Amino acid sequence: MIPLIDYLQLGILPNSHDEARKIRIKAPSYALINGELYRKGFTTPWLRCVDEAKGKEALQEENAGQAGAHEGARALTRKVLWMGIYWPTAHQDATELTRACKECQVFSQVQANSHAPLSNISSPWPFYQWGIYIVGPFPKAPGRLKYMVVAVDYFTKWIEAEPLRHIIKFV
Questions:
Q1: Number of domains observed in the structure of the chain
Q2: Closest Cα to residue 147, out of 169, 120, 122, 128?
Q3: pTM surpassing 0.70?
Q4: Does residue 7 sit in the same domain as residue 85?
Q5: Can you give the residue range of the structural domain that contains 130?
């Protein structure tokens, strides 16, 4: 932030061509107001730029304070930005904080991703392709029925099931 302040206040650019170019590109989004650096927000009012330590303190207060809801990194970052403060690593710091916070982990949503990649099974018309599965053994099934054969039509999702006493394996 210091080179950006130097550029906005005094017009001084770093010696490195790449760094000077980055500052010239970033400069229109920032302004010095009463000696403090502010950043224009896209959907928010001017955001006061703070150092990383003050930003992390604001994150801690918002996460575990009186109204702390342990909602997650994106919501936490959004709340801090709506408080009117900004620092470049806000979202990264919020992610680290929520990963280290026990309450955030306990109350976080369970991800609904499958353990194995899903594959489509396409069938052009009903009863063209079936899946046949043997399920069991079941404990203490009535009438000594321990297994079940289940057949599923892939097009209509029609299910047929029949109980079995035993299974004979043909080699």
A1: 2
A2: 169
A3: no
A4: yes
A5: 119-171
